Amino acid sequence: MSLLLVSKNRNLKPYKEALLKLDPNLDIEIWPGISKPEQVQFAVAWQHPSNLFEKFPNLKVISSLGAGVDHLLSDDTIPESIKFTRIVAPSLSGQMADYVLTAVLNIMRRTDHYINQQRKSVWKPLESIKKSEVTVGVMGLGEIGSEVAKTLVKNGFPVTGWAKSKKSIQGVKCYSKDELGTFLTQTNILVCLLPLTPETDGILDLDLFKGLKKPAYLINAARGEHLVEEDLIYALDTDTIHHATLDVFAEEPLPESHPFWGRDKITITPHIASVTDPMESAELILENYKRMLSGMELLHKVDREAGY
Fold first, then answer.
1. 304 is catalytic
2. Measuring CA to CA, which residue among 196, 208, 173, 305 is closest to residue 248?
3. Average pLDDT of the chain?
4. Residue 112 and residue 144: Cα distance in Å, rounded?
5. What is the pLDDT of residues 169-184, one digit of tens each?
6. What is the pTM of this model?
């Protein structure tokens, strides 16, 4: 029996080393160096090659290397019998909360304007935005989204939240699926932390942007596919959205020719808002691997129908 690590664009050696530090007896292979496909029962994947998992007849479980699982759910060649799990690590929520708080504070203190002024050697103090003048709205109130909302509340921001089902978070005015319009009218700074499902694919479009309270800002740290890119460009050009902070993109790395580059009203970060730590992940992976071998209930199992 072996454990397989798979990714097209991530160095997986630190994860293998972390797993072996926890259990030196593990048989671990990293794609594409697979010697005995029939021995693979558990795989850990991030942005795997299409049709890959058809080659492993005894595969039982695939764990995402992060909290997102859309790369697994979109692969219809994976049999229904194979269970999906995901990494839900405490550090991921904390990192995301730090990222979003930083992005919100940059909006409040007009950081993007000062960066642009520095490029032009312009000295021009600008009036900061007061916390009392804006409301931050968090779309997606799972474990990560809830932690982000709580962090914003602790830092003195008025906060709203929107999720498929109504949540209860102290200090956060929460809305459910059918109350999206009301949620948007209360929100200036929109933070997208939704899972990617057929319902949320393309949810960040021009109609949604027009529903936001003005002035409006966007922070997307969920998935690139949530955003209709052409609609954001139009929204920025017409001042429907004043500024966008983007950490995720439909195509990564973002191509050099992409129109987002060079725009003063867009802040780009290279998918670093919340990065999986190898040792922390290894502990969760090993626990689920042992649970699979013992026939126990898996941790953080994914509901394929719900999409998370």
1. no
2. 196
3. 96
4. 26
5. 999 999 999 999 999 9
6. 0.90
Among the residues of the chain, which ranges form H helices? 13-22, 70-73, 90-108, 111-119, 143-154, 180-185, 206-210, 229-237, 278-294
Mean pLDDT, to the nearest integer, of 232-257?
97
Closest to 93 in 3D by CA, of 223, 254, 253, 277: 277
Distance CA 43, CA 84 (A): 10
CB 72 within 8 A of CB 64: yes
Q: How far apart are CA 182 and CA 175, in angstroms?
A: 8
Please, what are the domains in the chain?
A: 2-89+276-294 (3.40.50.720), 90-268 (3.40.50.720)
Identify the active-site residue in 48, 71, 223, 226. Answer: 223
What distance in Å separates the CA atoms of residue 66 and residue 222, rounded to the nearest whole number?
A: 12
Residue 271 a catalytic site member: yes
Q: Rounded to whole angstroms, how far apart are CA atoms 52 and 147?
A: 35
Q: Could you say which of 242, 258, 271, 291 is catalytic?
A: 271
